[in-house]
Amino acid sequence: MKPLNKLQGIIYCIGAVLMLVGAVMGMAAPALAPYVFAVGALAFVAMQVQQRYEGQNLTIQRLRRIMLISDILLILVAALMFADRGNPFGLEHLTWLRYIHNNWVIGLLIAAFLQLYTVYRIDAELEKEAKKR
Question: pTM (2 decimals)?
Answer without folding.
Answer: 0.87
